[in-house]
Amino acid sequence: MSKNVTFDFVINKKNNTIKISREFAANISLVWEAHTNSEILDKWWAPKPWKARTKYMNFTEGGS
User: Fold this and answer.
1) Are 25 and 5 in contact (CB under 8 A)?
2) Closest CA to 54 of 23, 62, 46
3) For the purposes of burial, counting CB atoms within 10 Å of the CB of 31, is it exposed (0-12), middle (13-18) or buried (19 or more)?
4) Angle at the Cα of 60 from the Cα atoms of 13 and 53, rounded to 5 degrees
């Protein structure tokens, strides 16, 4: 695994989109758990003293 991880944050004002690309120095199963478990994800997006709350998460085909 590379010690030089990447992080890209691109804003496209013409298309009103934001693309975030990030490389993690961690096992893929751990990264997947952090992005699919709302309790972990909320803490990652909003460290103390801020708060984030996931309203809905559906990781099935066609989900959101």
Assistant:
1) yes
2) 46
3) middle
4) 60
pLDDT in tens, 28-46: 999 899 889 999 889 888 8
- Mean of the per-residue pLDDT values of the chain: 86
**Gap between the Cα atoms of 48 and 42, Å rounded:** 11
The residue to which tokens 């298309």 are assigned:
15
Separation between Cα atoms, residue 12 and residue 17, nearest integer Å: 5
DSSP H/E element including 38: helix 38-45
- pLDDT at position 3 is 66
The Cα-based distances of 48 to 3, 39, 45 in angstroms read: 27, 14, 10
